[in-house]
Design a protein that fits this description.
transmembrane, EmrE-like, 311 residues, mainly alpha, EamA_dom, AA-Vitamin_Transporters, transmembrane helix
């Protein structure tokens, strides 16, 4: 009987591991295709309006999840300031900046630019949370950003104001997301994931959409079916589906392992974007991309910490 239990337990463990690996791959693909989805959406929908519609599509599903799990969508009253911060600095401004940036920057490069976000988390954690930053992490940051500079140069983004403004918009979105993650470590304790996302997404979506109507005057009748399909994908698959699977995995994998999603999804984004946009990947582009991701990987696995653990 004990042998039977051991065999069944082994099969269950292997099946669980297989499902976990599959879900990890789904998150990488989902987030890797997000950037192409944004690129297609902004083909016929202006940035503010596009970001707002994406969240308005996602909001009812988040409400449904909150209702099914019987969780409140309201932040605690004493954290109203934190609620405003999340709504503005995690959802509203960064997603407008991403949509704006993709008007001028290829989707694969956008993903690479945004993959700097965990590095900014590391920097802000050192500044605000007094977490230790190792020398190897500093070297990894230097390698990563040097490679990113060479990628931008390789892509021909030299002096054109619109292209450079797109690059800076995407980097600023990564900085704001990183800051929000770090502040959430301080202020977001005890707030469930569904509460954290639902109402901010709804308010951000409505605010961005109304701002788009006032500022951009979008002709919604002229929106192509491709852009509508991309918005539906972004709202349902990327925002809701990717969110659910990611936080499901967060309970089953260590944060360090799961954080490698940010290293892997840009690879999918680069190849998918190059295929869709008909842009060949040059050997230099591939070389610098791998070097950039390797540099950022070092920031997640500092050699000093690994040596101390083994010792």
């Amino acid at each position: 009987m004990s042998i039977s239990v051991t065999i069944n337990g082994g099969k269950t463990a292997r099946l669980t591991g297989l499902v976990t690996a599959l879900l990890f791959l789904i998150v990488c693909i989902s987030w890797g295709t997000t950037w192409l989805g944004i690129k297609i959406a902004v083909e016929s929908v202006p940035p503010l309006t596009s970001a707002g519609l994406r969240f308005l599509i996602a909001f009812p599903l988040f409400l449904a999840f909150a209702w099914m799990r019987r969780e409140s969508i309201f932040f605690p009253r004493q954290r109203f300031g934190f609620f405003v911060f999340v709504t503005v600095c995690y959802f509203s401004l960064p997603y407008y900046l991403l949509n704006y940036g993709e008007h001028y920057v290829a989707s694969g490069l956008t993903a690479l630019l945004f993959s700097t976000m965990p590095v900014f988390i590391l920097i802000f954690s050192g500044l605000f949370l007094r977490e230790r930053i190792y020398l190897s992490q500093v070297i990894g940051i230097a390698i990563g950003f040097a490679s990113l500079f060479m990628i931008i140069k390789t892509q021909g983004l030299h002096l054109a104001y619109s292209e450079l403004s797109g690059v800076f918009a995407i980097l600023l979105a990564a900085v704001m997301h990183a800051l929000c993650y770090v502040i959430t470590k301080q202020r977001g304790v005890g707030i469930s994931v569904i509460t954290f996302n639902t109402l901010p997404i709804g308010i951000a979506g409505l605010g961005l959409f109304l701002a788009g109507l006032l500022i951009e005057h979008p002709g919604l009748a002229a929106v192509t079916s491709r852009s509508w399909a991309a918005l539906a994908y972004l709202g349902l698959a990327a925002s809701v589906g990717g969110f659910i699977v990611y936080f499901f995995l967060l309970k089953r994998l260590s944060p360090v392992v799961l954080s490698f999603v940010f290293i892997i999804f840009p690879v999918f984004a680069v190849f998918i974007g190059a295929w869709y946009e008909g842009m060949p990947i040059s050997p230099n582009m591939l070389r610098y991309t791998l070097l950039l991701l390797a540099g950022f990987a070092i920031t997640k696995l500092p050699l000093e910490r690994l040596l101390n653990t083994r010792g």
